[in-house]
Prior knowledge:
It is built from one helix and seven strands. Strands 1, 2, 3, 4, 5, 6 and 7 form a seven-stranded antiparallel sheet that branches.
Amino acid sequence: MEQDILYFKSPGEALEFACEFLNCRTQKGDTLPAVITAIETVPAGFTRLSIPTGKGCVEISCIQSAQGPKKLNKGDFVAFHIDEELFPGSSPKSLVGTIVAKLKPEFDTQKGWAVFGE
């Protein structure tokens, strides 16, 4: 079986691809690619993300996990894990989750997004 890897020039370009071409569910237990759009200092650890949904990209807020990657910056490409769906079926803005890994803007058609350090 042939393996195809798509390389993107930037995290934003990778996210645009995910928003347009991938079927990204936003349900409890799912992990999505995301781009950090802002890191808030008050409250500490509060991060704004742009995530793909079945209807394009939306911006949400999340709290950085102590177990997640360190030294996150605006523009980083990350994996966002949905821990809870507050209002099932509503806007993705009702999601509770954590950033679990930093991603590379590389998509393997067999394995998914490449994770830094693997």
